[in-house]
Amino acid sequence: MRLFLSSYRFGADPAPLLSLVGNPGRVGVIAAAAAADAWPRTARTSAVVSDVMPLTRLGFTPEEVDLRDYIGSDGQARSAALRERLEGFGMLWVRGGNTFVLRAQMARSGADRAIPELLLSDSLVYAGYSAGACVMTPTLHGLDSSDDPAEVVATCGMEPLWDGLGVVGFAIVPHHPPAELPGAEDAVPLEDAAAVRRTVTALRLAGIEYRTLTDDQAIVVNGDRTELV
């Protein structure tokens, strides 16, 4: 299993991601995370382009995988169709945004079954940042401090899910101020810093194991090895 879970895109250096992937090739880009499925079409298109360009500059060939194309009544069939599509990629790139919207779209499309299956067989690398990282954890508890669960009903027509995919065994708190730098928290918008503190407090009170990430950091899982880079 190979995972690259970051707070913001490649973190400080794309080298760990490239080392995990090997030679860059086709990458499937999932944009549902950015609450992109709740945005107007032009804003959603812009969100996709903003992730496609950095990937292209690293030598990847990005293609959007729109989870909405795989939403239907037959859950088993849609999961199989999505899995067949994903099998053609060496990497998935799952962008940030509203974690609850991403989780709901993964459930509706069958991605929450197809992706863990492909990871267990080491068929591809999963790279996700912010919401794309958080959705791989056991729980979304505490993330309502920064992401609005109410967007799920309006966008997806279902109640929000509070469980993640459970691929890693700990929660992730992205966008944490770099504590080692004096005054670092002052460089983060006050609203964002407060949301991070509320998420951390909620996880602590619930007794949930978690790891914080600054925007320069990422968690890399390669087989049985997990490290912070």
List keywords for this structure.
single chain, 229 residues, alpha/beta, 7-stranded mixed sheet, two-stranded parallel ribbon, 37% helix, globular
Tell me about this structure.
This protein is α/β, with parallel strands linked by helices. It is built from eight helices and nine strands. It has helices spanning 15-21, 41-57, 75-86, 99-109, 111-120, 131-134, 150-156, 190-206; strands spanning 2-6, 26-30, 61-64, 91-94, 125-129, 171-173, 210-212, 218-222, 225-228. The strands form two sheets. The protein has a seven-stranded mixed sheet. Helix 3 (75-86) crosses helix 5 (111-120) and helix 4 (99-109) runs parallel beside helix 7 (150-156). It starts with a strand and ends with a strand.
Hey, roughly how much beta strand do the residues contain? 15-25%
Query: What distance lies between the first and last C-alpha atoms, to the nearest angstrom?
Result: 17 Å
Widest beta sheet: strand line-up? 3-2-4-5-1-8-9
Order of helical and strand elements: EHEHEHEHHEHHEHEEE
The strand count comes to 9
Give the radius of gyration: 17 Å
What does the largest sheet look like?
A: 7 strands, mixed
Unreliable spans? none
Overall, the morphology is: globular
Oligomer: single chain
Question: What share of residues is helical?
Answer: 25-40%
Question: Which class best fits the helix and strand makeup?
Answer: alpha/beta
User: How many helix segments?
Assistant: 8
Question: Could you tell me the mean pLDDT?
Answer: 89
